[in-house]
Structure prediction request, 353 residues.
Amino acid sequence: MSNKSRPLSRSFHSSKTEPNPETFRLQSCTKRKHKQTMEKIEHTTVGTNGINMHVASIGTGPVVLFIHGFPELWYSWRNQLLYLSSRGYRAIAPDLRGYGDTDAPPSVTSYTALHLVGDLIGLLDKLGIHQVFLVGHDWGALIAWYFCLFRPDRVKALVNMSVPFPPRNPAVRPLNNFRAVYGDDYYICRFQEPGEIEEEFAQIDTARLMKKFLCLRIAKPLCIPKDTGLSTVPDPSALPSWLSEEDVNYYASKFNQKGFTGPVNYYRCSDLNWELMAPWTGVQIEVPVKFIVGDQDLVYNNKGMKEYIHDGGFKKYVPYLQEVVVMEGVAHFINQEKAEEVGAHIYEFIKKF
Prediction:
């Protein structure tokens, strides 16, 4: 866009040496109002699929079910819960199996796609909800794809972020493919040995670890070499505007209580999921879909990913894909980094159904 066609900015900046008291007052007021609104979110525990699941919810109306990723919680959707509930929707965001205040079964094999979708179907059944709008990010996006494969009858439409639908290749196991393409230091490969990555995580203060993950801005696959470990994942020089110390401390408090084994077990089921998914080889996603990703997202910059998304491969397996949104300058944790824009994208899509 040329300067001539760009609209004039109406923002004003106060001097660094002479802070504007009115600005601080307005910021303080906004934070206070946000906190008061956050307090309206209801928290319950629901028995489902053999576990107790913590659920955050707010609002009334058609249901939007939010599915978080790694290493996150229901809290990752806090802004979208408020945004959608204020527009006539019932917004629901659970802590997934192994996370936050939801149970964490000890067995690695209790974290397959069948378990994870089963938890959510059981949750909806317990709440008396037949159909929902699904919204997923990262691992939550994968779970949402599986949800749509297994139970498309329960989904009105899907808004997914960061991770496009991965068609099953019957000839190649996922871990063999990851090692061949990215090497043994690729983070998913490094997560495989039980207890190993948890020990590395334990060497770092949890709040610092959360900052490393949430503020990560690398437009390439993430590798964690054994010899250097997490020192290769940079510490942010400062928190971005969309993430506060209070946010980080909330995440840290929950991961300090629960640990990382449950969340990492999702990755340890990669090959098991591949085996279990054999009956769905070649099956398409047959619900309306909108896909959102940041151009600085590490997944978007995986080998061949842009070509798959934009050159017809994605559409082949997701025939009702209606929109693909690529947000410039945005990294992986898009639902937090661009909270209001993501909320608007979700609303503009689901209100059509």
Notes: The longest helix spans residues 21-38.
